[in-house]
Amino acid sequence: MSNEIEAIKDPGLPAHIHRKADHDPVAAKRAERQVAILFGISSLGTVLLIASFFIPEDIFIFVPVMGSQNAHQLGLGLGMAISLFFIGMGAIHWAKTLMPDQEVIAYRHELRSEDVDRKEFVVAVKDGVEASGIGRRSVIKRSLGAALGLSALSPILLLRDLGPLPGNDLKETSWKAGTYLVTDPGDRRIRASDLEVGAVAQVLPESDDPEHRKLNDIAKDAVLLIRLRPEEFNLDAERLSWTHEGIIAFSKICSHMGCAVALYEQQTKHLLCPCHQSTFDVTRAAKVIFGPAARPLPQLNISVDGEGFLIARTPFSEPVGPSFWGRISS
Ligand code: FES
Asked: Is the Cβ–Cβ distance between 219 and 286 less than 8 Å?
């Protein structure tokens, strides 16, 4: 199959209008000169560009106005712009006025090859296989099969190379039984009375060395405290017992892909993840009511110590963060 290109001879088409330079030698000569001038201006631009590297900066007339560095940059930029613009203009003018001006028609054929071509192809492939001797040479056949099979493993290795697997990193946080909840920032212990109804606060587990917390730990330990009226909860008895005087605590890491769930709508009592709009209902233990997250935000079981400071009663009962590598969704 091939495309045939022929000069138009179709009488149904309007007559081709020839350019002046096609039949007037004077016009052709003029066009030639115009193209040469455009290329000449381009050359001057290149000369300006090169000169800007070597001539002293204070020669530029703009130096008093814009400073030597800017004037130098201007020389370089202007030189390059003139060089490229006029070489392009020259080429276009050349093509439009002097290069062959011929309308052509291209005939397109069906994409399917002729039957005879297809048969020839099959015969050629068979001949090739026969000539290679792969049918008779079983050692080559097997080793080639092994090589191709092994090469298919490369993509798996490349995928593995995307980064370390998360391992147990997100299965363990710094929250332990009895860990105090502290403000972030500030590292102050919190009493229930510090939080008004409707308020939300980010807290971290108390640390012996708060100045040197690892970023990684802060990211996975962050917890959101939200205070509602106790009667607003719609929780089973166990989850209700994990709250304290209307205060409920959730991991701040989205269970979809790990963004920080940072938006709280006080009216609806919804937590929103800004990344892909997963929405969690605080009154129902952060149940997912919209978006791609596959499971609720893990809830932290909280209580208070003898002095009324909020503490974790247990660690998180499930891993925090994304659940795409095989967490139990609920
Ligand atoms: S990371 Fe939160 S919705 Fe995707």
From this structure: no
CA dist., res. 326 & res. 102, Å (int): 66
Q: Is 311 in the pocket of ligand 1 (CB under 6 A)?
A: no
| The two structure tokens encoding residue 49 | 């560009």
User: 38-86: per-residue pLDDT in tens?
Assistant: 999 999 989 888 887 777 665 666 656 666 667 777 878 888 899 999 9
Residue 198 shares a structural domain with residue 91:
no
Domain contains 224: yes
Residue 228 Cα to ligand 1 middle (Å): 24
Residues 97 and 201 in one domain: no
Side-chain-side CA neighbours of residue 253 (13 Å): 22
User: Given ligand 1 and candidates 250, 252, 253, 257, which is best to mutate, with the most ligand atoms within 8 Å of its CB?
Assistant: 257
Residue-range definition of the domain harbouring residue 10: 4-106
What gap in Å lies between CA 42 and CA 53, rounded to an integer?
18
Hey, how many other C-beta atoms are within 10 angstroms of the C-beta on 131?
8
Q: Identify the sign of the CA torsion 57, 63, 64, 70.
A: negative
Q: Which among 247, 251, 290 is positioned nearest to 268, based on CA atoms?
A: 290
Range with lowest mean pLDDT among 39-53, 159-173, 293-307: 159-173
Does 272 fall in a domain? yes
Q: Is 79 a member of any domain?
A: yes
Rounded to two decimals, the pTM is 0.50
| Domains held by the chain: number | 2
